[in-house]
UniProtKB/TrEMBL annotation:
Name under which the protein is recorded: HAD-IIA family hydrolase
Coiled-coil positions: none
Signal peptide annotation: none
InterPro entries tied to this protein: HAD-like_sf, HAD-SF_hydro_IIA, HAD_sf
Key words, A-Z: Hydrolase
UniProt GO molecular function: hydrolase activity
Length: 333
């Protein structure tokens, strides 16, 4: 029996939004996939850039969705940012918090004092996603940073996935401050910085972790920076066209339609592929896709063309199956 992709790894690190759930709804097949990993005894971790929930809250949410988890398996950018600030500031230092109550609580538990006004002379500003963040919060942060406060962003995801499509993420709010201040944050803690992944591996002593995510610019780039293999699933933010255009630092080891790809053979999900069953690319007046097979296998073949310098956006279908595959991938002309 061929070895499953997941069997070559001693830890699976999942992103959450767009991989396990969308806001508070489980993604199809996610509960079953995680259940299978639990039955097989595979160590799991969850690393999220979303700073609006604390680790116990995330674990409770996952458990409520049918994905049993404990707080020790969850790493958040909020907790990591508070820990970094505690390392760099004297105990009791004031920190202006722009974000959700979860971020304030993490700052408080790290031995620092969360504040809301620039007049309180904070030593740092920490900015994370919060659905209630508004102009007044950004204004206080701008004044504090101009006054000398260190600016720390939990993450810079431009969007976050939702059942209604991508919505503005913390990166969009960071961009507003960046425009107003004419400067970059002093520190960005979350993905694509590698620390969340490295911390997850340290917790269980893993030497060959696999990162699973839906974003090339955070999950996959973060895995590349951490020296870890990665699986891109097409259930969240980034899709086939994004994968074709991915720069080398944002290229995953594997791609799959969903978490079911964990249980395929590694060769069935690897990009670019050594070979693809059923599909061929032929040249003659431009590249043509011919044959029959799954849409995800057609995508893997196109990735090989794109990453070797070819123009995969110019591929035309040579069979009705090829036409259907390109349409399913959103790549039809």
């Amino acid at each position: 029996m061929s070895e499953r992709l997941v069997d070559a790894y001693d830890l699976v690190i999942f992103d959450l939004d767009g991989v396990i759930y969308l806001i508070d709804r489980p993604i199809a097949g996610a509960v079953e996939a995680v259940g299978e990993l639990h039955r097989a005894g595979v160590p799991l971790a969850y690393a999220t850039n979303n700073a609006s929930r604390r680790s116990p809250e995330v674990a409770d949410l996952l458990t409520g969705l049918g994905v049993p988890a404990d707080a020790g398996e969850v790493l958040t950018s909020a907790g990591a940012s508070a820990a970094v600030l505690a390392q760099r500031l004297p105990p009791g230092s004031k920190v202006l918090v722009v974000g959700a109550e979860a971020l304030r609580a993490e700052v408080r538990d790290a031995g620092l004092e969360p504040v809301s006004a620039a007049e309180e002379k904070p030593a740092a500003v920490v900015q994370g996603y919060g659905p209630q963040v508004g102009w007044a919060d950004l204004a206080e942060a701008a004044v504090a940073i101009r006054g000398g406060a260190r600016w720390v962003a939990t993450n810079t995801d431009r969007t976050l996935p939702s059942p209604r499509g991508p919505l503005p993420g913390n990166g969009s709010l960071v961009a507003a401050l960046r425009t107003a201040l004419g400067q970059e944050p002093d520190l960005i803690v979350g993905k694509p910085e590698p620390e969340l992944f490295a911390a997850a591996a340290r917790r269980v002593g893993a030497v060959r972790p696999l990162v699973v995510g839906d974003r090339l610019d955070t999950d996959i780039e973060g895995a590349v920076r951490a020296g870890m293999d990665s699986l891109l699933v097409l259930t969240g933010v980034h899709g086939p066209a994004d994968l074709l255009a991915a720069e080398p630092e944002r290229r995953p080891t594997y791609v799959a339609a969903d978490l079911g790809g964990l249980f395929e053979t590694a060769d069935a999900a690897r990009v670019p592929p050594a070979e693809v069953e059923g599909w061929r690319l032929e040249d003659g007046g431009g590249p043509r896709l011919t044959g029959d097979g799954t849409a995800i296998d057609a995508l893997r073949l196109l990735v090989g063309l794109a990453w070797s310098g070819g123009d995969a956006t110019k591929v035309t279908p040579d069979t009705s199956a090829a036409r259907d595959a390109l349409h399913a991938l959103g790549l039809a002309a």
